[in-house]
């Protein structure tokens, strides 16, 4: 029940704060500030997301558990949503989720709840580099063949 109350109170608090800031700074400045925080926040989210994707790929390639990175990636996604929503309170919570120190602190209890899971990484890409040794490339036999049961001349 308290969560529902907070969920209903949040938009009202956002509107109240927008009105207060608009009275002090002016409507145009407030609008520009909201647009700037959304644009800058989404840029920062994109950069952080790319870093986390590289870290996730590395952890999977090494066979380590990616649960922590996945939780942090979800937190960065939520930060992007919060930064895009117009309002200063949501921007504050989005910034808290975007900063690595507070994000790790907020996701730590969820990381402790993970179970025993084995992760396997499979890479299905083809290399354009030439293989030097036959043992790495496999044996290739060149030649012609003809089926014995073939009736054609």
TrEMBL record:
Entry keyword set: Membrane, Transmembrane, Transmembrane helix
Domain of life: Bacteria
Composition-biased stretches (Basic and acidic residues): 139-153
Transmembrane regions listed in the UniProt entry: 27-47, 67-89
Disordered as annotated region, ranges: 122-153
GO cellular component terms, semicolon-separated: membrane
Comp. bias intervals (Polar residues): 122-134
PANTHER family: UPF0716 PROTEIN FXSA (PTHR35335)
Name used for this protein in its record: UPF0716 protein FxsA
